[in-house]
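Q: I have 234 residues here and want to know how they pack in 3D. Can you give me a structure?
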Amino acid sequence: MPLTDGSTILVPVDVLNDERPATDLLTISDTVTLILLGYYPVPDQAPPAQLKADHEDDAQRRLEKLAATIDRDVTQRVVFTHDRDETVDRAAEEYDCDAILLPGSHTATDRVFVPLRGDDNLDRILSLVADLLRRDEATATLFHAATADKQAYGQSLLDDATDRLVDAGIDPARIDTRLATTDDPGTAIVELAHEFDILVVGETEPSLTDRILGRVSNRIADDVDRPAFVVRKP
C-alpha cells in the first residue's frame, strides 16, 4: 500500500514560556500541514475566561512571532486551559492530526530514530518518516527489539518498512535498520535513542490523556531528552 503524502502535525506551544520548538523541526516537507496550538496554562482556581480577556492579545502575539519564523503558512490557535493534556488531545482529534511534536533538547535534525513494535499504525509512522526524510540531509534508523524467537518477524518488519519508504521515493542509502535480541525492548530503545536527533514513536492508545504513548514509549519521553514526533493511533 502506498504511503500517504503530507502528514498533519500538531505543535503545542506554552505561550507563557520563552522556549520554542526549533524552526528547522517545523520546516519539514512542503506537503506537511502544521497546527500551532498556543496554550496558556490556567491555575486550578482561576477562571479561564478572565485570563483570556486579560492576556489573549499577548498570547496571540507570542504565537504569531513563532509562526513568522516558519517559511510557510500554518494554522494558529490560542487556548486557555486548566488541563494541557486534555486540550492537546482534543485539538489533535479536531484537526485530525497524524502526529504531535513533543519538545526536547535539540541541536540537529539529521538523524531520525524510529523504533517499530509491529504492523499496527505502521502506515502513519512511515508516512511521517518519509516527510522527514524529504530533507536531503536526514537519515533514518528503523529499529526493532524482540526476543530470540521473534527475530524472523522483526527482520521481516524492518525489510517491509524499508521497501515502503523506498517505494515512496526515499534513497535506500539514507535508511538504516537495526535488529536487537533482548527480553527488555524498552531499555534497548531508550539506550539507543540517545544517539539520535529526533524520535518518531507510535502511540499505543488514541489519547494524550492516556499518556499518548503506552509503557515503552512513555519511557522514551521521560528518559530521552530529544524532540519526539508521537504518531497518533487512529
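Q: Anything worth noting?
A: The longest strand covers residues 33-41. Helices lie at 23-26, 48-68, 84-94, 122-133, 151-167, 185-193, 214-223.
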